[in-house]
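2024-03-11 09:14:02 INFO queue: dequeued item AB hydrolase-1 domain-containing protein, len=372
2024-03-11 09:14:02 INFO validating residues
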Amino acid sequence: MSAMNSCVVPPSVRTKLFNSDRFIAPTTRLNQHRSRCEINRRGFAFKGIVASGVSVMGSSLVTDRVEGVERLPYKPEGYNFWTWRGYKIHYVVEGEGFPIVLIHGFGASAFHWRYNIPELAKNYKVYALDLLGFGWSEKAIIEYDAMVWRDQVVDFMKEIVKEPAVLVGNSLGGFTALVAAVGLPEQVAGLVLLNSAGQFGNPNQETSNSDDSALQKFILKPLKEIFQRVVLGFLFWQAKQPARIESVLKSVYINSSNVDDYLVESITRPAADPNAGEVYYRLMTRFMLNQSKYTLDSALGQLKCPLLLLWGDLDPWVGPSKANRIKEFYPNTTLVNLQAGHCPHDEVPELVNQALMDWLSSVKPKTSPWTL
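2024-03-11 09:14:37 INFO prediction written
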């Protein structure tokens, strides 16, 4: 794979305080301006492949951590487990108070919220769950679709949280949180998206004819699947190389000092599951390459709660223009611009935690329909 496009670095970054519904968060570690780097959908899928299809690394974890920010202890065996539709689902829960549910991105796990859970748990009851097929949750052999994870989060809210909450999601977890919020309008008091996945619909795109000819059904489709398995199998093998793992992680972390053994192992350990390769293949062919089925505008058009965007403007995958477009489409939005990459919650957690708690103070809890 060719190297990722580099992003330009400016001489300085100005800091601003909250002004109306827009806030630009300061950072003393970065002096970079908004990236205009974008990659196409196929490139994003390949990066997701690399992040998810990797082998187990050593279990010796470094003790370095973000200065002044408490970190969730890493547990190789996981924290808590819940059975959903017969599948084993991993989750973390800490603290007491108004609930917050954290949803990780593609290839990650609940441990990606390592610097957010302890801080938020000082004032809130914080849940972080692993989506089916990721992290410490079961690697189910199913047809993966965005609605599978939506249903998982909806049922998690009903069976584990059992009261209205705020949903927070990064990347794939962001889109999952969005469609879950639409599915539970009376139980989701607020929604937070950090560099969310998903795309706006193209009104000019022609719908394809679903009728398959005999040639397509019996010859072309089987050949296509064989080709995909060969190619994706090679990429899965390549993704296991330590150099590739480090390279991909550092490409989306502007401050690569946070790419440590804790982070790497929390991503790579789940790939030891015997079903990981098959899950990876299904994610790539059934989900990642068919994202246009569900769009941001269709989901945002049904959203009923306040929205906070915590956006890493230097993200080489999802630039700030997407956040601006979401805000234009859904006016009940607060936008917080951060000088960070694709995972601001792990790269600048102290800024994300503060911005999130400031916003949460204005969110009004709803009455639980499950306790009436």
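2024-03-11 09:14:37 INFO annotate: The CA atoms of residues 129 and 358 lie 23 Å apart.
2024-03-11 09:14:38 INFO item closed
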